[in-house]
Amino acid sequence: MVPAHAAAFLILLGASGCSFGTNDAVPRPPPSLARVSESEAADRRRHTTLLVIPLDQGELLAVEGAKHERRFNMATTSTSHLRMIFVTGLQNVHAVEHQALSLIDRQLDRLVRYPEVAERLRLHRTETQVQIRRLDDIMGSLGERSSSLKDMALSFMGNLAAMGHVAAPDEVIKNQLVNAAFENYEIASYTSLIALAEAGAFPTATALLRETLGEEVAMAAWVQDSLPDLTRKYVALRAGGGGASH
Ligand SMILES: [Fe+2]
User: Fold this and answer.
1) Partners of 61 in the beta sheet?
2) How far does the centroid of ligand 1 lie from the alpha carbon of residue 202, in Å?
3) Model-level pTM?
4) Distance from the CA of 227 to the center of ligand 1, in angstroms?
5) Distance 12 CA to ligand 1 centre (A)
6) Got the DSSP string for 30-83?
7) 211 CA distance to ligand 1 centroid (A)?
8) pLDDT tens, 86-145?
9) CB 95 within 8 Å of CB 153
10) How far apart are the first and last CA of the chain?
11) Measured in angstroms, how far is the CA atom of residue 214 from the centroid of ligand 1?
12) What is the pLDDT of residues 113-122, one digit of tens each?
């Protein structure tokens, strides 16, 4: 059994376990950074390789020790590179949504005394299924698909997190705290994905992701707003001597 207080950490650890990028297996010393002019960059380039990032007002950020010399900005980033990062992000969020389904289902399995929570969770479960379909559609339009392995791993983490609260007398409160953390994690994830979709000029994806982001924002707001009443109800049920945990 997972200790109740560890569940929120566990669930976010699981969600963040999927990287947006690819790992570089060869460790390299950290590169040095410096603001330079064009002429200084040209001078340094005689002695070392540079990654050069344009800044405002004609300044450049030179990264010495970069593996390959190149100029970097969104306009010159290769479409395939951006696309790869975007697809990895989509797969990760797809897995996060499967984690959300498990988390919601385990709560719905047990909620008895809090029908108002169950009702909103049911609604968000339906939204989550639509969100997964949107991600599938976006990946399908790019000729890609979700990762079954990531989906399964994070689904397991979602089950584990909710089950970790089963023995807690304030199970419903603990689960709502995890819901708050989780919804805000999703908001951050979709915000990042939208930035990638805009950078990569994937307009259909941007529109679909914005729809989902709106639903996550609404759910996060509901979770936050529900906490005072939910807490008072829990306290009243405890004071009444009956069951109050779920
Ligand atoms: Fe959500």
Assistant:
1) 35, 53
2) 23
3) 0.71
4) 17
5) 13
6) PPEEEEE-HHHHHHHHTTS-EEEEE-GGG-EEEEET-SS-EE--TTTS-HHHHH
7) 12
8) 999 999 999 999 999 999 999 999 999 999 999 999 999 999 999 999 999 999 999 999
9) yes
10) 18
11) 10
12) 999 999 999 9
Q: Residue 58: which region, alpha, beta or left (left: phi > 0; alpha: psi -120 to 50)?
A: left
Separation of CA 104 and ligand 1 centre (Å): 10
Length of the chain: 246
| Gap from CA of 199 to ligand 1 centroid (Å) | 24
Interval between CA 221 and ligand 1 midpoint (Å): 11
* Angle, CA 55 vertex, CA 54 and CA 56 arms, to 5°: 130
- Domains of the chain, earliest start first: 4-17+77-236 (1.20.1260.10), 33-71 (no CATH)
pLDDT single digits (tens) 163-212: 788 778 899 999 999 999 999 999 999 999 999 999 988 889 999 999 99
Q: How far is CA 79 from CA 51, 72, 84, 201, in A?
A: 18, 13, 9, 9
How far does residue 58's CA lie from ligand 1's centre (Å)? Answer: 42
Check the CA dihedral 110-114-117-121 and report its sign: positive
Determine the distance separating the centroid of ligand 1 and the alpha carbon of 216, expressed in angstroms: 5
How many angstroms separate the alpha carbon of residue 229 from the centre of ligand 1?
21
Cα distances (angstroms) measured from residue 213 to each of 56, 203, 231: 31, 15, 27
**How far is ligand 1, taken at its centre, from the CA of residue 96, in Å?**
9
